[in-house]
Amino acid sequence: MAPPTERDLPPTPLTLRLLGVVAAFTFLPWLGGKVACNDPVGRVRVPFELGADVLARDAKSAALELQQRASSNRFREASELASGELQSELLAAEAACGVNPGPCESRRAQSARVVTRAVLVTSVTGEARVRAESRLDQQLERFTMKLRQTGDRWYVVARSPFEGELEQPLTPAEAAAGPARVQP
Fold first, then answer.
1. b/e sequence 37-75, b meaning 16+ C-beta within 10 Å
2. Which tens digits make up the pLDDT trace of 155-183?
3. Backbone angles phi, psi at 34, to 5 degrees
4. Of 71, 103, 112, 111, which Cα lies nearest the Cα of 90?
5. Model confidence over 78-131: pLDDT tens digits?
6. 101-106: which pairs have CB atoms within 8 A and are 24 or more residues apart?
7. Beta-carbon-side half-sphere exposure of residue 82 (alpha carbons within 13 Å)
8. Distance, CA of 132 to CA of 166 (rounded, Å)
9. For residues 163 and 142, is the Cβ–Cβ distance under 8 A?
10. Global pTM?
11. I need a labelling partner for 134 at 20 to 30 A (CA). Which of 31, 37, 81, 152 fits?
12. Quick check: 107 and 158 in contact, CB under 8 A?
């Protein structure tokens, strides 16, 4: 007589319980993952507010942040990242906003929609040139900025409009002029 096969043996209560445990340990994590990954209302994470000293640790970040703030008409905050004549110009623009606050306030209200990007063009010890552009709806502003490092912090010392593409290579005249030769 042949020994009984597994099909011939009746299931014992222990076998049924262990199969239930295996099924539960498989199904419950799957269900938890499915619910967690498909949760449409997640926690909204707001980025940390960083100070100007943190943002100005490298040239590109300093120029990008100055452009974002200036394009949003937050000139006083932008002046924290500038020095020299540019800082005076930004503070004068802030004073002009105090005299005629209407246009400035409407642009500040749209500051969350201003998108800025920047490209580091040249960088030599202590001096750099960055191109940046800001876009709000159909309005586009492009600038080239010259920066100087003071201690461990970068300051934008000059800012001028730029007509070309942000990623275009340096022209021979720009390359011959050097990275950002700005007189103190």
1. eeeeeeeeeeeeeeebeebbebbbbbbbbbbbbbbbbbb
2. 999 999 988 887 777 777 766 665 544 44
3. -65, -45
4. 71
5. 999 999 999 999 999 999 988 888 888 888 888 888 899 999 998 888 999 999
6. 103/73, 104/73
7. 23
8. 7
9. yes
10. 0.69
11. 152
12. no
Please identify which residue in the block is written with the tokens 């949003």.
Answer: 72
Q: CA torsion 22→27→30→36, rounded to 10°?
A: -130
Q: Which of 105, 127, 130 is nearest to 179 (CA)?
A: 127
Rg of the chain on CA atoms, in Å: 30
Give CA–CA dist 153/55, Å, rounded.
9
Which residue is associated with the tokens 């020299």? Answer: 84
Rounded to 5°, angle at Cα 120 from 115 and 125: 140
- What is residue 80's three-state secondary structure? coil
HSE (side-chain half, CA atoms, 13 Å) at 129: 18
- Greatest Cα pair distance, the chain, in angstroms, is 107
Q: What are residue 90's phi and psi, to 5 degrees?
A: -65, -40
